[in-house]
Please model this.
Amino acid sequence: MISDKVKQQLIAIVSHDNYDDSKAGRLVYSYDATPQFQSLPDAVIAPRNTNEVAAIVKICNEHRIPIIPRGSGTNLCAGTCPVEGGIVLLFKHMNNILEIDEENLTVTVQPGVITLDLIKAVEAKGLFYPPDPSSMKISTIGGNINENSGGLRGLKYGVTRDYVMALEVVLANGEVIRTGGKLAKDVAGYDFTRLFVGSEGTLGIVTEATLKLIPMPETKKTALALYEDLEAAARSVSKIIANKIIPATLEFLDKPTLEVVEDYARIGLPTDVNAVLLMEQDGPPEVVERDMKRMVEICQEEKAIVQIARSEAEADALRTARRSALSALARLKPTTILEDATVPRSEIAKMVKAINEIAQKYNVKICTFGHAGDGNLHPTCPTDARDREEMERVEKAFEEIFAKAIELGGTITGEHGVGAMKAPYLEWKLGKAGIEAMKAVKQALDPNGIMNPGKIFAKNDRKRVVVTR
Model:
């Protein structure tokens, strides 16, 4: 609990309007988009600038009060759930695009900027920010940086980490550091910029970021490949990459996902096939034509029927439908568990087959979609948390899915993060020595353990419990 003395110190920094410890205010920020994780914070604070963040952190560090930086709450690994109470830090006031530098091809932003707003702002100047998480209409840049978010364009263009050039970070002791810069080359010291990206708020608080931009692609073309054989779709992905083609987008949806998405989006998606690949290429017209022609041939070799989008409106509808997969699936049951496992591209067919076999083994419904081009699949289970027996089967199914991903040379998460949800499985991927090395970094930067505690390093059980305080 926060004492009245500390409360008054915090209010003196941000004003009464930006400090909320009411039951209703705390309840709103007691959970994120992860099912079955909830815990009340002690207070919710909205700083207005970096100096206020630093002052808040100094007080919290002195009194050992946990701090949980939070964007829009779209996190899918309980990364922004205040599992140990403390203060939720909101960035609704720190939501400005500070500079678009057309000479250096960079944009500098505060953490509360909405991803899609940033994308639109730079595209208005003929520039391109490729990272495009499905939640980009509401997710923030700060949240994307904390989770190293990916997206549909990740295969060709990379993920958030690949575009973060510089950061302003408030450390756990309240000191402010700047990392990186508007530089094409910089090897002066440790690469702290990359360390903080994907650290899930456990090492420091990002208060400003400079991001790399690139020129807008000249043109693009979109197609949908329809398959009767689910594994043939997976094989097509491997063949496309083996032909040295890197599409801008190469997405996979299985039949159960297609049915739900079409019922939700109603854009004419085929629901009488077992899988589809959403393919897109961008760049110079001659490259787009050449690559799309070869991708169509590869898909047809695997007995697919290929439909080319006839207009940008039709292509955009296809992309929007894919991004809506989670929202569509969430309509099926009271609880939707969307997981995130990644394997090498060459192992996608084996992974898809394994997911289906595991679903049958545990008698659960699992819909699979995801970024097939980079091996990142999202097996998703509509279920009901009130049915304890079914939930136990769901948990066992996902444990086997994670184990299979690692067996195939993959990982337990490609873009959603570890948070509290996957912490028990992290040692499967990193080994004991790897965990200890990470803990050493954490201890050095946050010796009092106030930065988003209970995440990444957690207990060995994986029970999704509601905690009230």
Q: What stands out?
A: Residues 461-469 have pLDDT under 50 and may be disordered. The first strand starts at residue 19 and ends at 20. The longest helix spans residues 388-407.
